[in-house]
Amino acid sequence: MAFSVANARVLVTGGASGMGRLYAERAIREGAGSVTLWDIDALALDTTASELSGYGTLVHTRVVDVSKLDDVRDAARHELGAGRVPDVLINNAGIVRGNDYFWNTDPERDTEATMRINALAPMHVAREFLPAMITETTREKRILNVASAAGTLSNPRMSVYAASKWALIGWSDSVRLELERSGNRHVKITTFCPSYVATGMFEGARGPLMTPVLLPDVAVSRAWQAMLSGKPFRLTPWTVSLARGLKGVLPTVVWDQVADRVFHVYSSMDAFTGHAATAATATTTAKESRA
C-alpha cells in the first residue's frame, strides 16, 4: 500500500515561509490530520497559520530557534507531550552564506551559524523524535532531509555551506542504513539534493550549464514524491547526477577543468548577493528554507 499523508501528523522546520510553507500547503492539500510549523519568525508563523487554517487540517505553530539544542528539545517534548509523534518530519530550515573566500569569512556569523542550522539542527530534531517514531508502528513514517547539490560537489565561495550539506548528506543516509539494519524499516529517510532554487536565498547565483534554477514549487514537488515513495536519494535536476558521476570517474585535475570551463560550476557563485535577510544575524535567517 502506497504511503499517504492523509490523516498524518506532519512537522516542518522553517515552515513559516518559502519552501517550508509550500511543504505545509502540500500536506494540507493531501489531507494531513495536523501540520506543525517551527520557525524563528513569530509574525510569519502567525500569518501563515492564519492563511492555512480552515481547510480541515489542524495547524500548530511554535517559535523555535533550531540552532539551539535546548529550543529543539523543549519544542519536541511539547509535541510528544501533546501526542503528536510526527508521521512525516521535514528538516527544511537552512541558511546560506557565500560570495567570499573561506579565509575572509566570519567564524561565528558564517561558520558556526551555518553548521548549527544546516548540519546540527536536523540531527538534533531527528534525535528527539526518532525513538517515538520507531516505537509507533501503527503506520509508516517518513523523514525528509533537505540537503543540496552543494553537498555533492566542491564549489568556490561557498565552502562552509558545502561542508554543512556534505555533513547532512552523510549523516542522513547513514541513519537510513541504521534504520534498515536494525529492522525499523517502517521509518524511511529521503535525502533531497537540488541545485539552486529560486527562493531568494541564492539571489544572483547562476545555474551551471544545463542546470536551470528551480522554481520552489517544482523542487518541493520532486522532494515530496521522493519522500512519499521512500526513495533514499533525490538529486535534481539530472545534471546534478551527471556531475556527481563525472567527478567520481575523472581525475581531479580533469574534473576541475570540466567543472570550471564546461559546466561553469566554479563561477556559479561569483555574482551571488543572497536574500536581504542573509545579511542579518543567524537567528533571523533560520526561518528561511533552502532546497
Can you give a write-up of this model?
- The protein has 291 residues and is of the alpha/beta class.
- It has a single domain (9-285), classed as Rossmann fold, CATH 3.40.50.
- The chain has 9 helices and 7 strands, in the order E-H-E-H-E-H-E-H-E-H-E-H-E-H-H-H.
- It has helices spanning 18-29, 42-52, 69-81, 107-135, 159-181, 216-229, 238-249, 252-262, 282-285; strands spanning 9-13, 34-39, 58-63, 88-91, 141-146, 187-194, 233-236.
- A 7-stranded parallel beta sheet has the order 3-2-1-4-5-6-7, with helices on both faces.
- Strand 5, helix 5 and strand 6 form a beta-alpha-beta unit.
List keywords for this structure.
single chain, 291 residues, alpha/beta, Rossmann fold, 7-stranded parallel sheet, 9 helices, 7 strands, 44% helix, Sc_DH/Rdtase_CS, oxidoreductase activity, acting on the CH-OH group of donors, NAD or NADP as acceptor, oxidoreductase
Outline of the structure:
The protein has 291 residues and is of the alpha/beta class. The chain has helices spanning 18-29, 42-52, 69-81, 107-135, 159-181, 216-229, 238-249, 252-262, 282-285, and strands spanning 9-13, 34-39, 58-63, 88-91, 141-146, 187-194, 233-236.
**Helix-strand string:** EHEHEHEHEHEHEHHH
**Biggest β-sheet: strands ordered side by side in the sheet:** 3-2-1-4-5-6-7
- Which fold name is given in CATH as the topology? Rossmann fold
The CATH superfamily is NAD(P)-binding Rossmann-like Domain
- Give the DSSP E fraction (strand runs of 2 or more residues): 5-15%
Which architecture does the CATH hierarchy give at level 2?
A: 3-Layer(aba) Sandwich
What is the domain tally?
1
Helix content: 40-55%
What's the number of helices?
9
- In total, how many beta strands? 7
Question: What about the largest sheet?
Answer: 7 strands, parallel
Radius of gyration: 18 Å
Give the CA-CA distance, first to last residue. 28 Å
Tertiary shape: globular
